[in-house]
């Protein structure tokens, strides 16, 4: 579902490159984890995949489409859940979702039904007409995910979807992701919560300093590195020094 | 089209949620327009229909003083104060009152000024009669030059002084000419006698062969309007208020970028252009609505404060198109400011202060015509100048679309430059 080859990116006025020849690939219909310390290049990679940021060089293929020539097709097939709550805080969940759904060209009746179903699935039906700014952190995260699901993307990309949420919300989100995968969709997911990644992902790629460090199944990586958890593998490969 | 409609609806929803913002966007410019029109009413009326009290000290009591007084009173701008507390104003009293600043102007006509003018007229008539070989002589004596005294309070504006001195000079010349002509008539009558069948010559009527008639240069004389506080301030501050729409536009653009909603929108397939068009359309409609509400204040509210009603010309289509183009330019400026700055704290003060500067040089505060020559050229760099000039073209000069299209093209040009800067900034940000 994703093939990245020799991707380079240095932001203007940045002292160091964000990506220094990153190459990695993930197969179809899996939950893949893109892991790395702060500043490793995870968000830059996702931004390039979505067409928000232009790479300096290298190539990206998403679901068989080359990013350089098929960005519009890729946009139709992917759903991206950004790290920030990318919703209008003064609008209600329904108003936000109606707008996003209409921009995706979903018909009114179908859209209404989808919104109703997803709000129910994510436990937000009672707060459907409440402004997003009055939501708790967990509710905001859940609404943020729904907004990326309305067009039924084949590949769902989530940038730290469970950051700062309570245990109940986290469980609901993870259960939904597993269910979504079972329906035949692919998922790429970034997180700092390595226990969560170990539990959820079929495959993980650890990147650091804009390069791939290691890629494989969590269990294989633990065996190869004589570790009892993915966190130990991560610290072993990326070091203990602080990253700000 | 669906995207545009969805975006217009979404912007409306966002706008509706911010009731304080709605109130500020509509009420503050409305209050500003009303207050500025009221405050500037006096300066605008000063040289038009405000009446100035002039202390009139008549020590002459003759024909000359009588005719000059009547002549000045015919000018709407002046009112002669001949008595104070039921007594004729005296010279010393008049000087003291001007000195205290209680009156701005005093005119003192010395004793014998009429007699001097009559004597001078008799001298002229006798001289002319003698050269034409006429017999007889009107009574005359040696000239004793007399000065008409005029006192101004030092705060009196130079233009006001000139206006009064011109009026006095004109009256003096008129009265002298009338007396000379009357004396000549009298002399010619004396020559020919009052024999039946000889029509008397009305020299004064013959001298009025050329008169001055003020006409309007507007097409077909549709409008004959002088500018006043309402005619200047209502469109001027309505344009100023309309440009303040950049505050919500720039603020929302930056917030969308900060909270990630812009990123989400940009990840949606299809051109961002239709979404941008939807956003711009909403603000253009909003700005146009705001502009017409300001004009309605000039029609309905200001007359209740004793000000004249706003005259809006006779080209409603041209007015609507002009308002839409001005709103488009203002919206484009908002998009430009929103893209140039990273935070609302940078964008909003810049946006607000830049509008104040553009309005000051663009003739919003005071008409461009009274700015120094250099600034009159600088004014053309402000879109507000072209906007106000277009509105004046419709309201004051009675023009239609044919008259204002050059202004609309310039405004389009400003809008295109603003959008180009915004596009360039956004592209650079992607790198």
Question: How would the blueprint of this fold be written?
Answer:
The complex is a heterodimer of chains A (244) and B (431).
Chain A: E1 2-9, E2 19-26, E3 31-35, H1 42-50, E4 57-62, E5 65-66, H2 67-77, E6 78-81, H3 93-103, H4 108-121, H5 137-147, E7 155-159, H6 167-182, E8 186-190, H7 194-200, E9 203-208, E10 211-216, H8 218-224, H9 230-238
Parallel strand pairs in A: 3-8, 3-9, 6-7, 7-8
Antiparallel strand pairs in A: 1-2, 1-4, 4-5, 9-10
Helix pairs in contact in A: 3-4, 5-6
Chain B: H1 2-17, H2 19-39, H3 41-45, E1 52-58, H4 63-74, E2 78-81, E3 83-84, E4 87-88, H5 91-100, E5 105-109, H6 113-131, E6 149-152, H7 158-192, H8 203-206, H9 229-243, H10 246-259, H11 261-266, H12 272-301, H13 316-340, H14 344-361, H15 373-378, H16 383-395, H17 401-430
Parallel strand pairs in B: 1-2, 1-5
Antiparallel strand pairs in B: 3-4, 5-6
Helix pairs in contact in B: 1-12, 2-9, 2-12, 4-7, 6-7, 9-12, 9-16, 10-13, 10-14, 12-13, 13-14, 13-16, 13-17, 16-17
Protein name (chain A): ABC transporter ATP-binding protein
InterPro entries (chain A): AAA+_ATPase, ABC_transporter-like_ATP-bd, ABC_transporter-like_CS, ABC_transporter_ATP-binding, P-loop_NTPase
GO molecular function (chain A): ATP binding
Given as residue ranges, the uncertain stretches of chain A (5+ residues, pLDDT < 50) are none
Helix proportion of residues of chain A, in percent? 25-40%
Summarize model confidence as the mean pLDDT of chain B.
83
Major sheet strand order of chain A: 6-7-8-3-9-10
Total number of helices of chain B: 17
SSE series of chain B: HHHEHEEEHEHEHHHHHHHHHHH
Strand content of chain B: 5-15%
CATH 2nd-level architecture of the domain at 2-84 and 154-238 in chain A: 3-Layer(aba) Sandwich
Name the biggest interface.
A-B, 33 and 25 residues
- The first-to-last residue Cα distance of chain B is 30 Å
Report, as a whole number of angstroms, the end-to-end distance of chain A.
31 Å
InterPro entries (chain B): ABC-2_transporter_component (IPR051449), ABC2_TM (IPR013525), ABC2_TM_bact-type (IPR047817)
Family (chain B): Belongs to the ABC-2 integral membrane protein family.
Keywords (chain B): Cell membrane, Membrane, Transmembrane, Transmembrane helix, Transport
Domain ABC transmembrane type-2 (chain B): 191-429
């Amino acid at each position: 579902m994703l093939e990245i080859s020799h991707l380079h990116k240095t932001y203007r006025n940045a002292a160091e490159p964000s990506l220094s020849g990153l190459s990695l690939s993930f197969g179809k219909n899996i939950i893949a984890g893109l892991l790395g310390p702060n500043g490793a290049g995870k968000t830059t990679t996702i931004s390039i995949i979505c067409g928000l940021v232009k790479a300096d060089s290298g190539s990206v293929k998403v679901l068989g489409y080359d990013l350089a020539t098929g960005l519009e097709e890729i946009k139709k097939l992917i759903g991206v859940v950004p790290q920030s709550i990318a919703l209008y805080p003064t609008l209600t969940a329904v108003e936000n979702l109606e707008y996003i759904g209409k921009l995706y060209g979903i018909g009114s009746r179908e859209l209404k039904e989808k919104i109703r179903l997803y709000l129910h699935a994510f436990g937000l039906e009672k707060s459907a007409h409440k402004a997003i700014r009055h939501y708790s952190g967990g509710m905001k995260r859940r609404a943020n995910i729904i907004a990326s699901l309305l067009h039924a993307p084949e590949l769902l990309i989530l940038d730290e979807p469970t950051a700062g949420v309570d245990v109940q919300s986290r469980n609901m989100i993870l259960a939904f992701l597993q269910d979504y995968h079972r329906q035949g969709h692919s998922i790429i997911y970034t997180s700092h919560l390595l226990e969560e990644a170990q539990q959820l992902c079929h495959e993980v790629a650890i990147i650091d300093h804009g390069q791939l460090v290691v890629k494989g199944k969590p269990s294989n990586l633990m065996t190869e590195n004589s570790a009892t958890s993915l966190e130990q593998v991560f610290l072993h490969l990326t070091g203990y020094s602080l990253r700000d | 089209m669906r995207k545009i409609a969805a975006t217009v609806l979404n912007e409306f929803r966002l706008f509706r949620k911010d009731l304080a913002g709605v109130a500020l966007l509509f009420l503050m410019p409305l209050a500003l327009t009303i207050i500025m029109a009221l405050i500037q009413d006096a300066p605008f009326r000063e040289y038009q229909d405000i009446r100035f009290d002039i202390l009139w000290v008549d020590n002459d009591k003759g024909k000359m003083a009588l005719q000059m007084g009547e002549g000045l009173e015919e000018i709407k701008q002046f009112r002669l104060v001949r008595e104070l507390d039921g007594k004729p104003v005296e010279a010393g009293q008049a000087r003291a009152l001007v000195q205290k600043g209680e009156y701005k102007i005093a005119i003192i006509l010395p004793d014998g000024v009429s007699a001097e003018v009559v004597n001078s007229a008799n001298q002229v008539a006798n001289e002319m009669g003698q050269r034409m070989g006429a017999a007889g002589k009107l009574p005359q004596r040696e000239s004793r030059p007399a000065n008409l005294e005029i006192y101004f309070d030092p705060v009196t504006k130079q233009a006001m002084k000139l206006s009064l001195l011109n009026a006095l000079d004109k009256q003096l010349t008129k009265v002298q000419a009338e007396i000379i002509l009357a004396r000549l008539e009298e002399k010619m009558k004396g020559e020919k006698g009052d024999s039946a069948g000889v029509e008397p010559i009305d020299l004064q009527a013959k001298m009025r062969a050329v008169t001055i008639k003020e006409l309007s240069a507007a097409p077909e004389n549709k409008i004959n309007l002088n500018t006043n506080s309402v005619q200047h301030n209502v469109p001027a501050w309505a344009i100023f208020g309309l440009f303040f729409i950049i505050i919500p536009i720039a603020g929302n653009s930056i917030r969308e970028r900060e909270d990630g909603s812009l990123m989400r929108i940009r990840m949606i397939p299809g051109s961002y252009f239709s979404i941008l068009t939807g956003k711009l359309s909403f603000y253009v409609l909003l700005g146009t609505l705001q502009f017409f509400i300001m004009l309605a204040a000039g029609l309905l509210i200001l007359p209740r404060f004793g000000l004249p009603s706003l005259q809006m010309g006779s080209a409603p289509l041209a007015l609507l198109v002009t308002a839409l183009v001005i709103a488009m330019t203002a919206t484009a400026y908002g998009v430009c400011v929103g893209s140039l700055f990273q935070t609302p704290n940078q964008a909003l003060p810049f946006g607000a202060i830049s509008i104040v500067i553009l309005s000051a040089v663009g003739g919003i505060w005071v008409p461009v015509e009274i700015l120094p020559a250099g600034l009159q050229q600088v004014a053309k760099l402000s879109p507000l100048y072209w906007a106000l000039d277009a509105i004046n073209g419709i309201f004051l000069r009675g023009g239609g679309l044919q008259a204002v299209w050059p202004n609309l093209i310039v405004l389009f040009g400003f809008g295109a430059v603003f959008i180009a800067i915004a596009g360039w900034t956004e592209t650079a940000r992607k790198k």
